[in-house]
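Hey L., structure's done. Input below.
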Amino acid sequence: MLHLQKVHQSEESILHNLMQYYIYEFSKYIPEITLEQSGKYKPFDLKDYWIMDNYHAYFIKLNEELIGFALVESTTESRPNTIKEFFIIAKHSGKGYGRRIARELLGMFPGDWKITQIENNEAAHLFWVGVIKEVTESSFYERFEEGKYIQEFSVQAIR
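Output:
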């Protein structure tokens, strides 16, 4: 069964380990991303996910197998919901798992959304536009700004 599992602060090292694969994949789009002397990529600063109520970290699991993660910033008075990072490992990409989890995440945080992808990551752009078209019945606004595609839309309930 495909499901989300909230990441607890005690599991931060597991999330950092999984994020190494994400950063590795992302490095093909941003050449400035390089390995440190330790042989690892610089870890993300995740402290907001443990102290801020509107930051949410999830493992994506298939049965008990860890297959990805999602980092979400939920809406505040001045900011819409945002997918900060989203990743499915290569072994499980292309099977519809990402689409199912993305739809679930959008439904968990109803309201306004803003999702971005860098220009070079065409696969991510196609993925998110496809998901957004599904959940909004193609009612969204997209623009390209400073090397990023940006989609803005609203989600109330997902069928």
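The chain has four helices and seven strands. The radius of gyration is 15 Å.

-- N.
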